[in-house]
Design a protein that fits this description.
The structure is a single chain. The chain is of the alpha+beta class and 175 residues long. The chain contains six helices and five strands.
């Protein structure tokens, strides 16, 4: 097999891998990185992984082949320069990690995103990043649901405690 066809097969395999990784994402955030060093790249990967966010660094031509004719095809507008894709099922997680990392690193910036087929500019992505994540929202809802139950239990226990104190005082008086 010639070197040219091997290279083409490698690229096709890479396009398929990227496509498989992003197919379940509800959002893909496009970021540009201009000169991140190895430590910065490692900390970016660790931050993304901790929040359940996928990260892909690839050539724009390969990314274009992955997203063409799909729900993320509008991303092509943002594919210029060294590109880093952040993607997740949680619509806030990828935006949040990207925005936070860009605040700490001047050589990393949020360019835009596509969420559920809708194109978002960088400013919209940063606004989305300020929202609580799905896990944070779930925790707040559970807290709100549990609070009334705790109060009800306290109210129901109070009369029994008062009755016991009255009975105890009465028995001490009679003795």
């Amino acid at each position: 097999m010639s070197e040219l066809s091997e290279n083409r097969l490698e690229k096709e395999k890479l396009v398929k891998e990227i496509g498989d990784e992003i197919k379940d994402a509800s959002i893909i955030v496009v970021n540009q990185q201009m000169g991140l060093n190895a430590d910065q790249t490692r900390s970016l990967r660790v931050a993304m992984r901790a929040e359940g966010v996928g990260l892909k660094i690839a050539k724009n031509t390969l990314i274009k082949r992955v997203i063409e004719k799909g729900p993320f095809s509008a991303l092509e507008k943002f594919l210029q320069g060294p590109t880093v894709l952040a993607f997740s099922k949680d619509p806030v997680a990828a935006a949040k990690v990207s925005a936070e990392f860009s605040k700490k690193n001047e050589s990393f910036k949020v360019v835009g995103a596509v969420m559920n087929g809708e194109l978002m500019e960088a400013q919209q992505v940063k606004m989305l990043a300020s929202l609580p994540s799905l896990d944070q929202l779930r925790a707040k809802i559970i807290g709100l649901v549990q609070a009334p139950a705790t109060k009800i239990a306290g109210v129901l226990q109070a009369p029994a405690g008062q009755l016991a104190r009255v009975m105890s005082a009465r028995s001490k008086q009679g003795a």
